[in-house]
Amino acid sequence: MDKSSLPNSVWAATAPSPIETYPLEEDISSEVVIIGGGYTGLSTALHLGPDICPVVLETNDIGYGASGRNNGLVIPTLSKADPEEIIRTYGKEKGEQTIALIRDSASLVFDLIRKHNMEKAGEQNGWIQPAHSPGRMKLVEKRVKEWGDRGLKVDLLEREQLEKITGSKAWFGGWIAHEGGTVHPMAYVRGLAKAASSLGTKIYTNSPALSLIRDNDHWIVRTENGSVKASRIVLATNAYTDDLWPRLRRTIVPVKTWQMATKPLSDNVRKTVLPGRHGLSDTRGDLEFARYDWDGRLVSGASLIFDFNSEERLKEHVGKRLQKNFPQIGEVEWEFIWNGFLSMTTDYLPRLHVLAPGVFTWLGCNGRGVALSTAMGAVLADLVRGQSINDAPLPVTDLKTVPGHGLVTRFARTSLLNRRISDRKELNLE
Ligand SMILES: Cc1cc2nc3c(=O)[nH]c(=O)nc-3n(C[C@H](O)[C@H](O)[C@H](O)COP(=O)(O)OP(=O)(O)OC[C@H]3O[C@@H](n4cnc5c(N)ncnc54)[C@H](O)[C@@H]3O)c2cc1C
Predict the structure, then answer these.
(1) Is residue 324 a part of any domain in this protein?
(2) Residue 31 and residue 246: Cα distance in Å, rounded?
(3) 245 lines ligand 1 (CB under 6 A)
(4) CA of 373 to the centre of ligand 1 (A)
């Protein structure tokens, strides 16, 4: 298989081999075509099988998009809105449905991993969110209350407890969502592909969908050397959305963000840095995060406002961050560095759309898409099966493009500056 399309990530280098897939080179028919071979597309496929056997078309290799590039933190919350805000925005009934979907999303990931024996794909040992300032402990307490009241297994961590679990004195306390954890992003997406394929999904890689045309009561999806005729379509392209469906790309802002992995840390250091192998991401707007891979590499990263000399700047910047949080780590040596795109929405809420009869999509992970994309796969599968849009656990909305999309996308990363300033202000105020 040509692996050249995958970035030089620790995940591509260490994942179990993918199932064999080939480009589409004939004209075929299927009930359902799914465009995009990441968590969304493959979870949709898995939730359709075995009675519906969809076709998946992927431009590159499985996991080429964010699903093969992310930090693998499995988080059963949204990045900004907590339950009370979700209810204020969506109303009581729909809001509670959305909250339940998000609450159960991390467990869904690990249930699928266990059910389908996905090799080395995940570790359900909880996700931790440390507070970067004393004031942020109020937000942490609010989250513990609101998510705890909705049945998520959570605990507040006082400063000393957090220090014991993380090996760091850098934070002021935090909380743990026990159903969260970490996945090996590429092992998980390949595991989903294998499981879906075993239930009858046909996966074609290096097969970009080039056009989507209505033909009487069917859709025809064309690739370079083939086509699929189907009655229902799922667009599972998220931040990697192209111009296949008019205006869709302009409803989200794709934001580049970087990941990097150290060389394996020594056994001694690992005993004191995240000794329980927890994954964490803190309350900063300019997020600080870290987790281990299976070989004891610490995988972290950051965003940059401008792309120049990026890799060298990141090595220094993220190295210093890790040393600040974990002084016992010593010198930080980097082994892998890569990047990917997040799909952001202006209100940080996900979007679910029915684009035309039988054409479904969701977008807008806002940085929390490992668990959410998996859960949205189940939602999309239900819609494909004919569930009423009124019964979907998220409101189905019309497409709304981001005003000034080109400029907003170009300058999206400058918002990082504001986030850094407010992170610092919060810390200095207290
Ligand atoms: C660097 C980074 C770190 C992240 N860290 C985390 C994290 O720790 N925790 C978390 O919860 N979330 C994280 N996320 C977000 C999470 O990775 C994504 O939300 C999730 O992977 C989205 O999955 P998806 O299947 O919807 O999209 P993707 O995985 O992006 O898949 C879309 C696929 O569609 C394909 N495609 C596009 N157009 C076409 C076409 N015309 N024809 C065929 N195929 C097409 C693309 O090639 C791509 O493979 C991170 C994201 C990034 C980029």
Answers:
(1) no
(2) 23
(3) no
(4) 9
- Strand residues in 345-399 grouped as ranges (E): 351-356, 359-363
Q: How far is the CA of 215 from the centre of ligand 1 (A)?
A: 30
Query: Which residue carries 């086509």 as its tokens?
Result: 227
- Residue 384 inside a domain? The answer is yes
**Total number of domains constituting the chain:** 1
Q: Which of 236, 229, 258, 245 lies closest to 62 in space, CA to CA?
A: 236
Q: Which residue do the tokens 């780590």 mark?
A: 329
The CATH number that applies at residue 53 is 3.50.50.60
Can you tell me which atom of ligand 1 is nearest the CA of 38?
A: 25
Q: List Cα–Cα distances, 22 to 92, 308, 355, in angstroms.
A: 46, 37, 29
Q: What is the pLDDT along the chain (430 residues), one digit of tens a residue?
A: 344 589 999 999 999 999 999 999 999 999 999 999 999 999 999 999 999 999 999 999 999 999 999 999 999 999 999 999 999 999 999 999 999 999 999 999 999 999 999 989 999 999 999 999 999 999 999 999 999 999 999 999 999 999 999 999 999 999 999 999 999 999 999 999 999 999 999 999 999 999 999 999 999 999 999 999 999 999 999 999 999 999 999 999 999 999 999 999 999 999 999 999 999 999 999 999 999 999 999 999 999 988 899 999 999 999 999 999 999 999 999 999 999 999 999 999 999 999 999 999 999 999 999 999 999 999 999 999 999 999 999 999 999 999 989 888 887 778 877 888 888 787 775 5
Does ligand 1 have an atom closer than 6 angstroms to the CB of 64? yes
204 in contact with ligand 1, CB cutoff 6 A:
no
Does 268 reside within a domain?
no
Q: How remote is the CA of residue 308 from the centroid of ligand 1, in Å? A: 24
Q: Is 24 in the pocket of ligand 1 (CB under 6 A)?
A: no
Closest CA to 248 of 259, 261, 239: 239
Residue 69 in contact with ligand 1 by CB distance below 6 A: yes
Distance 158 CA to ligand 1 centre (A): 34
- Find the domain containing 41 and state its range: 10-70+186-245+346-400
State ipTM: 0.99
For ligand 1, what atom is nearest to the CA of residue 40? 25
Burial of 304 (0-12, 13-18, 19+ CB in 10 A): middle
What atom of ligand 1 comes closest to residue 62's alpha carbon?
49
> Is 364 within a domain?
yes
